[in-house]
Amino acid sequence: MKVTKENTGNLTAVLRIDISQDDYTPKLDEQLKSYRRKANMPGFRPGQVPMGMIKKMYEVPLRAEIIEKLMSDSMYEYFEAEKVRILGYPLANDEKTKVDWNNQKDFTFYFDIALEPEFDINLENIEETYYNIEPSEEMLDNFVKDIQRRFGQFSSPESIEEGDLVYGEIIELDEEGNEKEGGIKEKTSIFVEKIAQKTIQKKFIGKENDAEITFNFGKAFPKENDKAMVIRSKEKEDLKDFSSDVKFIVSSISRIVPHELNEELFAKAYKGEEIKTPEEFQQRAKEDLSQTYSRETNTYFTNEVTKKIIKATALELPDEFMQRWIAANSEGKLSQEEVKNNYEQYQESLKWQLIENKITEKYAIQVTKEEIKQYLIDNVIKNYFPTIEDQDPAQEKERMESIEGIAENMLKNQEQTKQVYEYLFDQKLTSTLLENTKTTKKSVSVEEFTELIQNQAKN
């Protein structure tokens, strides 16, 4: 087996793969013998079908399958060994490749490939403005109230109110309203304000211990994450279509009494920071609240700075090949003409992918599994398992074990893990761009930032 590369342009080449009979015969013979051992045909004992009949039936398709795998493996082994970095994937050159599976013994395949261009990036010369959003007084007041609740004391009231956490047992019901045999039945807790429908929330309001509340689970918790937080014995995927009626039997009620606005609260909310007065606390909370808009401001900044980096980077692409590749990659959805007419947009995207890869390598940007898990714990799961003040070590251990278990289950969801990965990667990319470009920071109101977003969308 032999792989050779012949350059056809600055960034294009033809890959030639020669596969001889000796390369595939051992594997072919092995598989034919395996087929013979398993063959069960009328007139022959099991495993005694003549090899000639087996070859007649299976040799050609088996040979093709084995050769195609050899061809693919040798191609990518060559790329790795020779450190050939390609754009897209190889395109079969049907004009040069001639294959007769029935009669040929030796085969030669040709592929057109595009080579990654060599280029440098210089972020230090890029200038851009990063906008910080300054919250309104009303937004700040609500944020401070949230902090007071977060560090408030738990009490055990006699009846349920909207902000309460209610403990109890949830039981799946059948169509007649009776407990479903083999259905869901487990101890759990529900934040009343997390219930999606107000009419279902009202069923909880005013109820006391031992009260029984019947509601439709799918209407109360339409989102998969919320379903999984209530019914913890099931995988999230198993709860996707779960929308049965359920009965919830209240066992206890927990309520947060907001913390007073004092130095004790300041120390709890912002550990290690010397905050002594309500005015200092308001200012620190204001900075914290501004950070909640970081996803929007980061996205705006990244989009703007991306345009400038692409414009400033001397980067050549093998346009003719890339147009062929885009059309082929669309699996018939785009014609060559459609790709050509819209190629400028594709070109910008392709260039940014190359630049992003270069930045990722140069600045060693990576996201680990542990970082994804920690993000899920800190930003999703802990909202459902708040820290209870003065809880004993056994309670804290049980709380953390529950959090760890849910995090591990959430990591099994590839789509969700991918979303968190992309979010964390974008954060790290933005931080890298902020640290290495000439960035000027400017404060704006929510309304002013909204106008910037609208103008960006028009351009």
What does this structure look like?
- Helix 3 crosses helix 8 (278-291) and helix 9 crosses helix 15.
- Strand 1 and strand 2 form a beta hairpin.
- This protein is α+β, with helices and mostly antiparallel strands.
- The chain folds into 3 domains: 2-115, Alpha-Beta Plaits, CATH 3.30.70; 153-257, Chitinase A, domain 3 (Roll); 281-458, Trigger factor, domain 2.
- The mean pLDDT is 91.
- Strands 6, 7, 8, 9 and 10 form a 5-stranded antiparallel β-sheet that branches.
- The chain has helices at 21-38, 51-82, 137-150, 198-204, 217-220, 224-230, 263-269, 278-291, 294-312, 319-329, 336-341, 343-362, 369-379, 393-411, 414-436, 446-458, and strands at residues 2-7, 12-19, 86-92, 107-115, 127-134, 153-155, 165-172, 185-191, 212-216, 245-257, 438-445.
Write the layout of secondary structure elements.
Blueprint: E1 2-7, E2 12-19, H1 21-38, H2 51-82, E3 86-92, E4 107-115, E5 127-134, H3 137-150, E6 153-155, E7 165-172, E8 185-191, H4 198-204, E9 212-216, H5 217-220, H6 224-230, E10 245-257, H7 263-269, H8 278-291, H9 294-312, H10 319-329, H11 336-341, H12 343-362, H13 369-379, H14 393-411, H15 414-436, E11 438-445, H16 446-458
Helix pairs in contact: 1-2, 3-8, 9-15, 13-14, 13-15
Give the beta-strand count.
Answer: 11
CA-based gyration radius? 31 Å
Q: Helix tally?
A: 16
The name of the CATH architecture of the largest domain is Orthogonal Bundle
Helical proportion, percent range: 40-55%
What low-confidence regions span 5 or more consecutive residues with pLDDT below 50? Answer: none
Q: In terms of structural class, how would the helical and strand content be classed?
A: alpha+beta
So what's the overall shape? Answer: flat
Per CATH, what is the topology of the largest domain?
A: Trigger factor, domain 2
Q: How much of the sequence is in beta strands?
A: 15-25%
| Main sheet overview | 5 strands, antiparallel
List SSEs in N-to-C order: EEHHEEEHEEEHEHHEHHHHHHHHHEH
Q: Tell me the number of structural domains.
A: 3
Question: Could you name the CATH class of the largest domain?
Answer: Mainly Alpha
Overall mean pLDDT score? 91
Termini separation: 53 Å
